[in-house]
């Protein structure tokens, strides 16, 4: 990293710690799968900026969601299954697993009893104790309503299907393989103490640090900048030992809309989505008494930021600003273009202009062996396509996501058209020699 970049990042970190009056703030940046910068300001513990543990709050939800997606990929559950099909629960059993992941299960926002983040989990020993008198606030699937108890249910689902405590499963199947050895369920030295800073005076008092018990899957974990940078790199690229890139991409897609009219925020499967200054960011914020945290990634740019502070009040958009500074001072370079190692001549011959009706589209063959079909000018329906073993292609994004692209041929093998989800693409607009649904006028263009 250039010295000027590091100085700009360090200055922004110092401003956040000073203006937000946090006892300490630490941060790290990831690019191309590795941590490229870390810094700290204030009373950073003896572990230093990279290795001191902080509570990460609701970033825990994303880790929990990764484990749920592992269960799905193993075939033990389907995201469309009602929770009650797998777990006996007094409330929330009618919501699907996907709805609980995306906070559209209709459940209450908070747990029963006094403020659960500041009281011991022994007050809520069983699932029935998690919910108050009105556990269901909305019909399932109707609206986004953030629910911490919903993630308590997902943690219980993990325990039921694995036959082991929630954290033990995460440590064995997610944290361990990713090298996140300093991420723990309870504080282990060196760790930062949580503080409440007075809003109008430069004084503070300690916040309680309790084991939240059944609510732990919603916000219990402690972690470090180094560990969360490893997790951020995983969220961007995947790791087949934990979860593949396709499943992570599924988690990063919006599964529920925002409550604000701006449509600048949404929620995926255990991830938050935010648009900030033209940049789409995916990750999660976190807060527990005495701590605030953020993990935000820009998938399009292959970079991510992690911020941790030991104050109950927030540090503002620090993570977003650090990403913007990195992109401004050292913009990402596109990968070097490389030709295909091997190319089927028949496939190369398919590329070029195709017409859906009178719409002019271009089929391209890319260096990764995938196809793309997009309107000229890129305004309209378009997608990338993955090759399948049977000679067809599957849409990966856009309008044709999940749809099948087939090549139509005559008996002699020559190509007549492309069939994409029943839409017929021809080499000429309404080619009379192609099987255009409804046919072409016999008198032709006139």
TrEMBL record:
SUPFAM superfamilies linked: beta-lactamase/transpeptidase-like
Record keywords: Hydrolase
InterPro entries: AmpC-like, Beta-lactam-related, Beta-lactam/transpept-like, DUF7586
Residue ranges of domain DUF7586 in the record: 344-427
Domain Beta-lactamase-related, chain residue ranges per copy: 19-326
GO molecular function, one term: hydrolase activity
PANTHER family (alphabetical): D-ALANYL-D-ALANINE CARBOXYPEPTIDASE (PTHR46825:SF7), D-ALANYL-D-ALANINE-CARBOXYPEPTIDASE/ENDOPEPTIDASE AMPH (PTHR46825)
Protein name: Class A beta-lactamase-related serine hydrolase
Organism from which the protein derives: Streptomyces radicis
Taxonomic placement: Bacteria, Bacillati, Actinomycetota, Actinomycetes, Kitasatosporales
